Amino acid sequence: QVSVINTVDTSHEDMIHDAQMDYYGTRLATCSSDRSVKIFDVRNGGQILIADLRGHEGPVWQVAWAHPMYGNILASCSYDRKVIIWKEENGTWEKTYEYTGHDSSVNSVCWAPHDYGLILACGSSDGAISLLSYTGDGQWEVKKISNAHTIGCNAVTWAPAVVPGSLIEQPSGQKPNYIKRFASGGCDNLVKIWKEEEGQWKEEQKLEAHSDWVRDVAWAPSIGLPTSTIASCSQDGRVFIWTCDDASGNSWSPKLLHKFNDVVWHVSWSITANILAVSGGDNKVTLWKESVDGLWACISDVNKGQGGVSAVTEGQQNEQ
Amino acid sequence: APLTDSVPPQVVPGADPSARQLCFAWGPAEVLVCETLFGRAGGSRFRCLTRCPCPSRFWGEDRAGAAARALTGSVAGTGDGAPSSSHVFVVRRDQDIYIQTLRKLFNESHGIFMGLQRSEEDLAGKSRKAQLVQVSKNYRSVIRACMEDMHQAAVSTRDPTLQSQYSTQVSILSAMELIWNLCEILFVEAATAGPLLLRLLDWVRLHVCDVDSMVREVLNSESPSKHKLFWNVVDVFVLQGRMDEARHLLSKEASANPTSMNMYRILDDLMKKMPVPSLGNTQTLTELELKWQHWHEECQRYLQDGTFASNPHMESICKILLGDEDAILEKKELMTTWYHFLVTRLLYSHPTVKPMELRFYAQSSMDLFLGGESSPEPLDMILMAAFEFEMHQVIKECSIVLSNWWFVAHLTDLLDHCKLLQSHNLYFGSNMREFLLLEYASGLFSHHSLWQLGVDYFDHCPEYGRVYLELHIERIPLSTEQKALKVLRICEQRQMHEQVRSICKIMAMKALRNNRLGSALSWSIRAKDAAFATLISDRFLKDYCERGSFSDLDLIDNLGPSMLLSDRLTFLGKYREFHRLYGEKRFPEAARLLLTLMTAHIAPCSFWMTLLTDALPLLEQKEVIFSAEQTYELMRCLEDLTAGNPDKQKFQDDDVETTKVEMLRLALARNLARVIVKEGTVEGY
Fold first, then answer.
1. How far is A310 from chain B (nearest CA, A)?
2. What are the φ and ψ backbone dihedral angles of B609, each rounded to 5 degrees?
3. How far apart (Å, rounded) are the C-alpha atoms in residues B154 and A42?
4. A69 and chain B: CB distance < 8 Å anywhere?
5. Which residue among A186, B52, B393, B649 is the one 20 to 30 A from B35 at the CA level?
């Protein structure tokens, strides 16, 4: 049973590139080629426009909500090379920080796990990745990884926060020793994993399997297992699931989820990481889940336009 | 039929399916699907859809994933160039949890579930089984109660859409109860040959109600035997093995038609004598079989002798008694289902059927009954799987066909407690029971109050329950302080420290944004968030400087040991204490505290000026309060302050500041003078 519980008219004047629900599903942020970022209150089937944020000078590609413990904060990135961080103060949304350190379009923004503080990773077509960290009092510190990917970086995604070693509660006031990692995908056909060591970001791993630009990467949420999982999708039509079994993050092995007939643009994980949504290739959104025998099975195949019940494919074979 | 595969409705009107791609983003309970063109080449129409696909099915088909299906574009296109109607459709799956009349189902079954988890596993054999059967019956009675409510709702509403919805729900619930009941008989109770048939007969009688109104009509008529449907009703009773009732009706016919008295007596006798399995241990199966054989032969003789030849109705009944398939099949409309046919067949041809033999009879019964005219529906396949004792198949089929996880989650849990599912462990370490419970409970979390039930279910999932709870509980909107406290209590009870901290921080931030400093402070103390506590203390102090008074005095006065969370907080607490002491006129203590605040560097440098200014009234009291040493200390503090001030220029330029400093120097000097004299004087004599 499917039912529409709400219809929100965003009134964007041009193509919408991203839409994200906030942490609780109470607000919706959308961004568009019309250069605006809009925020709606969608509680109880309503749709109230809370903010129409102007500040970008080009199409806005992505929006990302920060964790609510930092307040109501939204980041947006655009073709205009800027990253803007918006914040709600006293009931109104305002620009709280603007970062202009990139030389071309910023394609992707992603907030780090809240445990690390308020940190935003930004990937740009100039090949660099910037990390903006809030240090207090309206100040942001910037760390830049230049030439992270030759030609350009298309996507960034953070690893879930896991305290290495024991999970005993730390005495209050003492910050646990997190090992911060994130992954990026770029026009060099690579997925790279970055690790912070002594305050510097270093390339930890290079994951090679794609034969064309990597369009999106998504690090799966942690459900307590020692394995890490990353999904990557590419212009080459392939989606790979990368897994690393050991905690030190050394050996990543790819498994081909599927080869699509067209570019795959977007991959994302559900909250409990049990479903991967893949969108793009041949105008479909497909949902995938790992089945008993370790193979990835397509559980839903969206066939646009035909209106009928589409075929359900169980356990599609790997094309290794 | 209630459980048919329905085509997903067209959800998004007007979306243009051509040359569009779909973007996808997960929300906590919904999913966002946007039509877009990823080339980023520039404008084209765009529709942003929000939808929530449900957690996937383990076996491969996802009902809710149909959501995405429906979403996308199965709609008439408007084509390129149509005016941009940038609509966002928020679609939700698993609407069931929002149906008010099903609330009882979720709440009460939760109670039964919890009872089952806590029940004693070490009860042996028969008593354990009886316990489990009782649990099963409890679940079924909840389903029936819901059915009743739903039926009432259907009957009392005037809205045709609602009515049809309610009616559909009633049939779905009825199908669920049908399936569950069969599973109870075959799996939970594991009825053996003999009792098995009796149970199946009960089952059929309970669930084939299509004939009830006809039965009532005939029985209530003045002269039943003259009613045109009289023989139909007799047949119904015979088919359902309700011999006494059949005989009773027949007797009316006999008294009305004395000519058939002889025939009647014989038939009546046969029906009376029919051997049936009994529930007690009064006879063994072998004994029963023997008796039955004899009886069967007797019936056969009467039939062959043409005893009933002149009355086709009675003859047909005799054939039924003999288990004649054709005769029974003729009464198809009175049985309405193949499983009724199955049970009737078994009653009259093989009453001592063993559980494992059911599958053969079931398959042939379905084939014979449907006779190639119609094909089996999902419900039929589920029941067939049950008769074949393919438990996993039953669960799988139910998962696919039913719209939410409630049924399979609870049934599987029960079967697991019956130790029937042990052998099936899944790749990722969890087992089927846990998998289904996780999915069910996850679904509950999107509901504003049912989520609390979900917590308990997660508690009883040993592998992933905790982490799923951690991930879900963080997403519950903390719309009121009460709700936040409720969520907190749950986290604290389970030592979910990260979540506790996170929630407290979120509440602190919220309070701060709404200028409720006291609330913000107590939340940050609870979160053990030193940084935030410092921030808020600064705000308090700032407010004090601006207004000259503190807010939330109670809170600050009763900080106790939590004062130590941050230096600034400690200062705040101590500073307030200073004011209290001053208010109580305990000047020497106040003075000492004031001085300590500076000399022990508890006070931030930025606040020293304020503190020194606070010292002024103490310096100008009639009585000397600060000792000489203390006065020297104060002077030193003042000098440190003015000398070490990086903004010296500004400091000197500010008239107010300069005046203050001068006043202080004067007051300190005067105090020093007085105190030297005082200390140099011998007290009294």
1. 8
2. -55, -45
3. 31
4. yes
5. A186
Once rounded to an integer, what is the mean pLDDT over residues B559-574? 88
Cα–Cα distance for residue pair B381/B329, rounded to 1 Å: 21
Q: pLDDT at position A137, please?
A: 83
Our CA dihedral for B164, B165, B169, B175, rounded to 10 degrees, sits at: 50
Span B311-329, pLDDT tens digits: 899 999 999 999 999 999 9
A90/B476 Cβ within 8 A:
no
- pLDDT value at residue B651: 52
State whether B513 and A45 contact (CB < 8 Å).
no
Question: What is the mean pLDDT of the segment spanning B342-353?
Answer: 95
d(C-alpha B557, C-alpha B521), whole Å? 13
A275 touches chain B (CB under 8 A): yes
**Where do runs of H (alpha helix) occur along B338-405?**
338-349, 358-370, 378-387, 391-401
User: Is the dihedral angle over the CA atoms B391, B396, B400, B405 positive or is it negative?
Assistant: positive
Question: Do the Cβ atoms of B71 and A13 come within 8 Å?
Answer: no
Residue type, B489: R
Mean pLDDT, residues B203-221: 86
User: Does the distance separating the beta carbons of A305 and B87 come in below 8 Å?
Assistant: no
Across chain A, which has 320 residues, the per-10-residue mean pLDDT values are 68 86 91 94 88 96 95 96 94 95 96 95 96 92 95 95 57 67 96 93 95 95 87 94 80 91 89 83 74 65 28 26
Q: Do A304 and B22 touch (CB under 8 A)?
A: yes
Report the residue of B40, B500, B539 to disrupt the A interface, i.e. the one with the largest count of A CBs within 10 Å: B40
ipTM associated with this complex: 0.84
- Cα separations (Å) of A151 from A99, A122, A147, A303, B407? 21, 15, 8, 34, 53
Of the partner residues B89, B91, B509, the one whose CB lies closest to the CB of residue A69:
B509
| Residue in the block written with tokens 């939330």 | B552
pLDDT confidence band for B67 (50 / 70 / 90): very low
Residue B509: which residues within 8 A CB-CB, separation 6 or more? A68, A69, A70, A71, B520, B532
Four-residue CA torsion sign, A107, A113, A114, A118: negative
Phi, psi of B98, deg, nearest 5: -95, -5
CA A20/CA A56 separation, integer angstroms: 18
Q: Per the CB < 8 Å rule, is A45 touching B90?
A: yes
B219 to B226, B240, B256, B311, B313: CA distances (angstroms):
11, 17, 15, 22, 18
Domain ranges across chain B: 1-35+85-93, 207-335, 478-584, 605-684
Which residues contact residue A45 at a Cβ distance below 8 angstroms, ignoring those fewer than 6 apart?
A5, A6, B90
Q: Are A121 and A110 in contact (CB under 8 A)?
A: yes
Q: What percent of chain B has pLDDT above 70?
A: 83
